[in-house]
Amino acid sequence: MIDWELAIKIACGGFGLVFILLTLLGVSVWITKIIVDKIEKGKAK
């Protein structure tokens, strides 16, 4: 017998984990872009 309540909890937990990891990755890429842009502007001067 399939325990649907447990299956839904596991699926939601996995989806939530992926969403959090993708959000963290997006923020880190955005911050890296800002830092690289500032470094390149400093070299151009």
Features:
45 residues; mainly alpha; 0% strand
How does this structure look, described?
The chain has about 45 residues and is mostly helical. The protein has a domain at about 20-45. The protein has one helix at about 5-45. The radius of gyration is 20 Å and the shape is rod-shaped.
- The low-confidence parts are none
Ends apart, CA distance between termini:
69 Å
Mean pLDDT: 94
Assign the structural class, choosing from mainly alpha, mainly beta, alpha/beta, alpha+beta, or little secondary structure: mainly alpha
**Relative strand content:** under 5%
Level of helix content?
over 70%
How many helices does DSSP assign? Answer: 1
Rounded to the nearest angstrom, the radius of gyration is: 20 Å
> In one word, what is the shape?
rod-shaped
Q: Helices and strands, in N-to-C order?
A: H
Biggest sheet features: none
Provide a compact summary of the structure.
By secondary structure, the chain is an all-alpha fold. The protein is built from one helix and no strands.
Provide the fold topology.
Blueprint (H helix, E strand, L loop, with lengths): L3 H41 L1
